Amino acid sequence: MLCIETSSTILNDHEFDWEGWSQWVQQIRRQAVRRRYRLYVFLLDVILFPLILPCYFLYAIFKFIRRISTTTTTLLKAKARTTTTTTTTATPMVRKIEETTQPVIGQEEVRSLEIVIGINIMELHLDSFMSDGYTSTISAHEWLSGIASAELHHLQVLTLRGCNLAGSVGTSMLNLSSLSHLDLSYNHITDFPQQMFHLPNLKVLDLSDNHHLTGSLPEFPPGTALQQLFLAYTNYTGRIPHSIGNLKQLTDLEVGNCGFFGPLPHSLGNLEQLAFLGLNGNNFEGEVPSSFSNFSSLEELDMSFNGFVGPLPSLKASRKTIAKIDLSNNQLNGTIPLSLFTLPSLQILVLSNNQIQGKMPDWLCNNLEYLDLSNNSLVGFEDPFSNHSSSSLEFLDLSSNHFEGSLPIFPNSLETLDLSSNHFEGSLPIFPSSLETLDLSSNHFEGSLPIFPSSLETLDLSSNNFEGSLPNFPKGMDNISLSKNKFTGAIPLTICNSSWSHIDLSHNQISGEIPSCLFNSIMDRYPFSVVDLSKNKLQGMIPDTFGSECWLEGLNLNGNQLEGSLPRSLVNCRGLRVLDLGNNQIDDTFPFWLEHLESLQVLMLQSNKFHGPIRRRHIANSSFESLHIISLSANSFTGHLPLQYFPSLYFKGMYEIDDHQTSHTAMPNVFYTFLMFPNKGQALEYKSIQIPELNAVDLSSNLFDGEIPTSIGDYKSLMSLNLSHNNLVGKIPSSLANLTQLESLDLSNNDLVGEIPSELTSLTFLSVLNVSRNHLIGMIPSGRQFDTFPSSSFEGNSRLCGIQLQIDCNPNKSGNVAPPSDHVNQSMVLISIGYL
Ligand SMILES: *[C@@H]1O[C@H](CO)[C@@H](O)[C@H](O)[C@H]1NC(C)=O
Ligand SMILES: *[C@@H]1O[C@H](CO)[C@@H](O)[C@H](O)[C@H]1NC(C)=O
Ligand SMILES: *[C@@H]1O[C@H](CO)[C@@H](O)[C@H](O)[C@H]1NC(C)=O
Ligand SMILES: *[C@@H]1O[C@H](CO)[C@@H](O)[C@H](O)[C@H]1NC(C)=O
Ligand SMILES: *[C@@H]1O[C@H](CO)[C@@H](O)[C@H](O)[C@H]1NC(C)=O
Ligand SMILES: *[C@@H]1O[C@H](CO)[C@@H](O)[C@H](O)[C@H]1NC(C)=O
Ligand SMILES: *[C@@H]1O[C@H](CO)[C@@H](O)[C@H](O)[C@H]1NC(C)=O
Ligand SMILES: *[C@@H]1O[C@H](CO)[C@@H](O)[C@H](O)[C@H]1NC(C)=O
Ligand SMILES: *[C@@H]1O[C@H](CO)[C@@H](O)[C@H](O)[C@H]1NC(C)=O
Ligand SMILES: *[C@@H]1O[C@H](CO)[C@@H](O)[C@H](O)[C@H]1NC(C)=O
Ligand SMILES: *[C@@H]1O[C@H](CO)[C@@H](O)[C@H](O)[C@H]1NC(C)=O
Ligand SMILES: *[C@@H]1O[C@H](CO)[C@@H](O)[C@H](O)[C@H]1NC(C)=O
Q1: Which among 201, 214, 306, 588 is least buried, having the fewest CB atoms inside 10 angstroms?
Q2: Which keywords belong to this entry (predicted)?
């Protein structure tokens, strides 16, 4: 039921913008028509009722909730109260809007739309009436002037939150002199008149989440009524005016994630009523004004993600109200003032990513629940938590500091503890029994492991000096990383009964065989699992026990002593994205049977005993559909180059590379997959399932023969190609010049003949080229990247000449070539530029 009631007067048509209203009604109707489909779904439910009885109940509940929520969020809600001064004897008149009196199926709420506007209306709430996926916008100016022209002299509250209003607001609203609360948030307004801030009665102004709204704060003369000002997520910019100190009544100031800059005015601290201050995500700079210690009502302070410098502000200890302080991501320095930690009501304190020094004061006597001091320069504890029986701390993050020594006793209330990247040492204490997440990575802990609390879900002990045998894995554990320690012995069988989804035991000295129950247990796991056992001393065969519901996303067994053939049951792992079996002794032919793993992106089989030709009769477009990094290097594959079997490298520029600088940076993640990919002569380490946006083929060090096909020019998205150390013959195809993304090309140690095609100089990204040890002749092309390659890129070809080799191609005209020392210097400079 959509209804605005009124007390006395009804507007005449010419006084009110009926066009705007009926436009809205049209749109509501269109929405309603779309909703009709829901009715059909509903009818379908009824037909299927006997079949899916149990599901139906759940669905019906869902539908009911959905229905309630759509009714409340999408429909016009208008409340009207009569002003006390007006008599209520006049009969409310009702204006029906024709279009909507027609029944709309399944949408009885819309059927009886009755709108009456009266001049005594005091509150008009029109929130979200267009929000149900409706995308077209309506002119803010038109609508608001429609409302304003209705001469609603008593209108005090107008809310149009999430109404798809767009464009400029215009000045018409200035006529609504009684307005005390205006909410235009979550719209697409671009322009809001500054005079509105000065409406005599305006107390609450919410313009937040209008991303294109530009403007700046006006001066606030004394007597401005504003109490709450919300501008977050707008494009407001400029400084906070000093006159903001005149807003004595201000309780909420939220200007987060705008474009404000400059130092904060000292007067801000004089706002005694201020309870919520959100300045985060701007470009504020300078010190926090000392007047901030004047705040007497503050409940929440967010100054994160700015450029504040200098010492942390001290807030008066007597304040009983403040619950949350976030000063993270600034350049604040100095020590932590005790006054911050003794605020009795403080629950959340975030000081991460600053340059805070000194020791951490004792803080456990208060109500603090969440404390984040990560990425600072703290060195230790003032008082190692002698009495924490009354602590309510649940989250403690001290990572990336300079803490040293052994661990203190932590309060029992802790659920998350992150001490990673410090210099803690010694053996581990018993941890609080409620702990769910424990990250001790990158410290100097040693010894064997204690028994961990059974509540633990995430455990990261990587990059320490732990030794001894692996612990028993608690059943409920989800993420486990023990990588980069000195663990020895075999993998305990309890690993199969634990419900982990990510397990990383890489870079240890684990021996024995892989338990055959391990892969079988990766059934019914959600989310997809990652298993990393790389760089250990595992022996024997890879168990052929991947179950039919294998939820494996990444498997890394690189750098062990595994032998035998590839387990055929791997095809069950249909979600597999990374398979790294490099540096083992696997003895098999090329696994064409993996071609139907649609997600497989990285296949690393290098340095094994794979052998035989890579050949088959048909080439399917759908084989190895997603593959874009493949290494078959250092095996005994024979026959012609097999590039045509990996059509994904051909057809898709799988990655539209637009920024070469970022293409090799790994994203932060807890677990590693170690991909030894000798790209550009470097071993690159990529984290977990963070697959680099790189199209790379390494077929080096095999027994491939024949020519490099000219069709190589079709693999346009290749960025790295290594064909070195094979028996390739023929010329270097000039079509290689079409691989415009190529950064690294290694053709060395083959039997290639002819000249180096001068077209290759057009490869502007090429930073590594190696054609050494072939039978190439003629002049080395020069210009662009070719001037940056060192002589070792070309040596071992007895009949090549050019300045890169300091061999004159025209011995008769000696003197053309500049003195050698110059070339060396020049090349070195250019190389370093080429690598940037
Ligand atoms: C505002 O009110 C004045 C006089 O009351 C009137 O002349 C003007 O047209 C009004 N503005 C709008 C946009 O309604
Ligand atoms: C914000 O304003 C600046 C100019 O002041 C403009 O360049 C930028 O595009 C605006 N951003 C949005 C999201 O409108
Ligand atoms: C606020 O603090 C400053 C010093 O930081 C002091 O001079 C001023 O009197 C204080 N104002 C109020 C209202 O307490
Ligand atoms: C804090 O930083 C400011 C400049 O940002 C510097 O002048 C001051 O010396 C620093 N204080 C300490 C204790 O490092
Ligand atoms: C740590 O803080 C510094 C600034 O103090 C910042 O540059 C760096 O990115 C932060 N590191 C992390 C991991 O957040
Ligand atoms: C620890 O604190 C609790 C509550 O604040 C108190 O009852 C107890 O006596 C304190 N214990 C010590 C050893 O100070
Ligand atoms: C486990 O690790 C993965 C990847 O790092 C992450 O997506 C997931 O949220 C983690 N699970 C828990 C419970 O922390
Ligand atoms: C794993 O669980 C099964 C049944 O729940 C049990 O029979 C088996 O002994 C357990 N294995 C280990 C190593 O705990
Ligand atoms: C593979 O796909 C390409 C383009 O999508 C098409 O031109 C070609 O004919 C297809 N080849 C086969 C064997 O399906
Ligand atoms: C190509 O592979 C060979 C051996 O497999 C390796 O030594 C060389 O560094 C690789 N070249 C590049 C550019 O990565
Ligand atoms: C590069 O590709 C274009 C068509 O995409 C072709 O016309 C041209 O001949 C190729 N260049 C070389 C050097 O093969
Ligand atoms: C080219 O390869 C040869 C042998 O494979 C190697 O000695 C040389 O250092 C390589 N040059 C460059 C620039 O990578």
Answers
A1: 201
A2: Cell membrane, Leucine-rich repeat, Membrane, Repeat, Transmembrane, Transmembrane helix
Q: Which ligand is closest in space to the CA of residue 709?
A: 11
The CA-to-CA distance between both ends of the chain, in Å, stands at 65
289 lines ligand 11 (CB under 6 A): no
Last residue of a domain, one of 743, 771, 799: 771
Which CATH number belongs to the domain containing residue 552 in this structure?
Answer: 3.80.10.10
pLDDT at 382: 80
Please check whether residues 765 and 783 belong to one and the same domain.
no
Mutate to test the pocket of ligand 1, among 16, 175, 195 (most ligand atoms within 8 A of CB): 175
Distance 630 CA to ligand 3 centre (A): 67
Instruction: Establish whether residue 355 lines the binding site of ligand 5, counting it when its CB lies within 6 angstroms of any ligand atom.
Output: yes
Q: Residue 25 and residue 625: Cα distance in Å, rounded? A: 50
With a 6 A CB cut-off, is 270 part of the ligand 3 pocket?
Answer: yes
Tokens standing for residue 588: 């098999």
Bridge partners of residue 157, in order along the sequence: 123, 181
Pocket of ligand 6 (CB under 6 A): 387, 389-390
CB 234 within 8 A of CB 206: no
My answer on whether 26 and 58 are in the same domain is yes
Kindly report, residue by residue over 732-778, the tens digit of the pLDDT: 999 999 998 888 899 999 999 999 999 999 998 888 899 999 999 98
Q: How far is ligand 10, taken at its centre, from the CA of residue 792, in Å?
A: 13
Whole-number Å distance between alpha carbons of 697 and 679: 9
Q: Is 21 helix (H, G, I), strand (E, B) or coil?
A: helix
Q: Does residue 335 line the site of ligand 4, with CB under 6 A? A: no
Q: If you take atom 3 of ligand 8, which residue's CA is the nearest one?
A: 497
Evaluate whether residue 229 is within a structural domain: no
| Nearest ligand to residue 732 Cα | 11
Is ligand 4 within 6 A of the CB of residue 333?
Answer: yes
759 and 690 within one domain: yes
C-alpha to C-alpha distance for 294 and 205, rounded to whole angstroms: 25
Cα of 659 from ligand 5 centre, angstroms = 23
Domain check: are 727 and 785 in the same one? Answer: no
Tokens of 634: 């250092």
Q: Considering the domain boundaries, does residue 674 fall inside one?
A: yes
Question: If we measure between CA atoms, which residue out of 665, 664, 724 comes closest to residue 698?
Answer: 724
CA of 786 to the centre of ligand 11 (A): 21
Distance of alpha carbon 138 from alpha carbon 811, whole angstroms: 78
Do both 639 and 759 map to the same domain?
Answer: yes
For the full predicted model, state whether its pTM sits above 0.70. Answer: yes
Residues 703 and 819 occupy one common structural domain: no
Residues lining ligand 9, Cβ inside 6 A: 621, 651
Ligand 8 geometric centre to CA of 497 (Å): 6
Tens digits of residue pLDDT in 441-499: 999 999 888 888 888 989 999 999 999 999 888 787 888 899 999 999 999 988 888 88
The whole-number pLDDT of residue 104 equals: 31
Predicted local distance difference test score (pLDDT) of residue 731 = 93
Cα–Cα distance for residue pair 126/21, rounded to 1 Å? 12
Q: Cβ distance 505 to 487 under 8 Å?
A: yes
Number of residues written out for the chain: 836
228-230 and 502-504 beta bridge pairing: unpaired
Report the domain count for the chain: 3
When mean pLDDT is compared over 2-11, 53-62, 758-767, the highest value belongs to 758-767
| Reduced 3-state DSSP string for 782-796 | CCHHHHCCCHHHCCC
Integer CA distances (angstroms), 721 to 450, 713, 740, 769, in order? 48, 12, 12, 10
Ligand nearest to the CA of 175: 1
- The secondary element (H helix, E strand) that includes residue 181 is strand 181-183
Domain membership of residue 780 as a residue range: 772-836
User: With bands split at pLDDT 50, 70 and 90, how would you rate the model's confidence at 812?
Assistant: low
Tell which residue, 639, 631, 655, has the closest CA to residue 717.
655
Closest CA to 244 of 270, 282, 278, 283: 270
Nearest CA residue ID for atom 2, ligand 3: 291
Q: Does residue 457's CB lie within 6 angstroms of at least one atom of ligand 7?
A: yes
